[in-house]
Amino acid sequence: MAENDTGAARPRHGEEVKDDAGFFSVLDESMAALHDAGIPYALMGGIASAALGRHRWTHDIDFFVRPEDAREVLQTLEGKGFTTEETDQAWLYKAFKEDILVDVIFSAKGGIRFDEEVQSHVRHTEFRGRRLQVVSPEDLVVMKAIAHEEHTPRHWHDALALLAGEDFDWDYVVRRARYGRRRVLSLLVYAQANGLEIPDEPIRALFSAVYEPGSERPQPRHDLVARVREAVASDPRASELDVHVTVAGRKIFLTGTVNTPERREAVATVAQEALPDHEVDNLIQVVELAHSGSRPPG
């Protein structure tokens, strides 16, 4: 177990929470804090998987929020006695209380954001005697398919459990799969091959989008990210290395910190010129040099 700033032990990633009462106390307190502050959110990760799919335990609490709300979430939780840190400016902040980890996620793998489409599909459900608002099963399946790696097989099996037990809006699944069509397609084919009642239509739609002649075959996002990063780092108008770039669909998301509003706008201009057919979402924060050393460690 790692230690927080108070010297108390806190769980590392992958460690299970053993105290159910303590876990749910922190969950209830953090949900109430965000609700009272009027901050839009949905639970994702293990809690959402357990509430919508298979029964399994989790070691942390995952809030999915808009990038522009992430710092306010930390401030709100800090006001309730949580220890907080800006862990990664590109996608993740963390908060801790009573050995319980709270992840504040504002960019899921693949560049998925808590956008208006995700917010409009948030599901309200009962779980362990409390009412939760969680991402929809459609969004969760897509995120699980994209997040799955060799060292995290639970994501694949979480997704299969969701597919086995929910009535899906398949048109919405196909639409959200734009963040990782091949991965979602492979999941649906695997599920169907294992006897789950997956209709042919979404599989055909995804196959067509990926493989048929005339289908949109976008350049891999990591190449686009590299192009923007190189431009932002080398262009004398910007010359910024502390800026994080994510490309999702036709949007460029910029996060990180700069010293002046003028530099913030210059970075956005350079990014736009690097990918002129994309829209720039500039989430960069301006931090004056006098205060730059006070940022919590990442």
Your description of this structure?
- This protein has 298 residues and is an alpha/beta fold.
- It has three domains: 1-135, Beta Polymerase, domain 2 (2-Layer Sandwich), CATH 3.30.460.40; 137-217, no CATH class; 221-292, Histidine-containing Protein, Chain: A (2-Layer Sandwich), CATH 3.30.1340.30.
- It is 41% helix and 20% strand.
- The strands form four sheets. A five-stranded mixed sheet has the order 3-4-7-6-5. Strands 10, 11, 12 and 13 form a four-stranded mixed sheet that branches.
- The model is unreliable at 1-19 and 290-298 (pLDDT under 50).
Task: Give me some keywords for this one.
single chain, 298 residues, alpha/beta, Beta Polymerase, domain 2, Histidine-containing Protein, Chain: A, 3 domains, 4-stranded mixed β-sheet, 11 helices, 41% helix, disordered C terminus
Helix and strand layout, with pairings?
Elements: E1 2-3, E2 9-10, H1 20-37, E3 42-44, H2 45-52, E4 60-64, H3 70-78, E5 83-88, E6 92-97, E7 100-105, H4 116-120, E8 123-127, E9 130-134, H5 137-147, H6 154-165, H7 170-176, H8 181-193, H9 200-211, H10 221-234, E10 243-248, E11 251-258, H11 261-274, E12 279-282, E13 285-286
Helix pairs in contact: 2-6, 5-6, 5-7, 7-9, 8-9, 10-11
